[in-house]
Amino acid sequence: MPPRETDLYPPIKAFLEAQGYSVKGEVADCDVVAVRDGEDPVVVELKTAFTLQLVFQGVRRQTITDDVYVAFGIAGSRLWNRQHRDILKLCRMLGLGLILVRSEGRRAPAVEVHLDPAPYRPRKNKSRRGMLLQEFHRRVGDPNQGGSSKRPIVTAYRQDALRCARFLQQRGPSKASVVGSETGVPLAPRILQRDVYAWFQRIERGIYALTPLGQRALLTYSDEVAALTSETAPEMADADQ
Fold it and tell me: Average pLDDT of the chain?
């Protein structure tokens, strides 16, 4: 049988009392309230599982005290093992503490404090920020509709590859250096050599031709190819594909 909310209260009450708190349940809409030596009260909200409603309750209690925990129970470890990182990250971002009440077999429920409430100040990843801005500025136009999944995302790298494919379709097998100079894609030799999308075929040293997959890509992205025809590729470093 899955635990009920009332099953979570006794072990959490005992856990807090062991730390010197006076504990009472259902006080002013709070599931659990613990007070110790004039400190700010500790509030714990209970649910049988981690849900959005539990998060909502915890956030509302933050208007009363900074020391708010959300607690839920599990009878096994499979679900927690699969989702614990996301759950911890969400609680940390919201400044909520997290308590897990684990029930296994006939043993008494175990109370595990996985996170204490604390202000959330995320560290900025300068490398990812740089990659984001580089991709934004390299990308020509706005080729992707937000939320769309009908075709692969058109990145700046894919746009460069499409320029190369279009050139080879029109001119036939060509030197990589010529493709680069004629298309305005400085990375053309690298794109042709890496052949990430299997659009290009090396037929002899330094000379490449378009593959059937490349021909198909030009049809799939025909709207994008048309938009790129009059554009010049920005001269920037290699980026994500």
Answer: 86
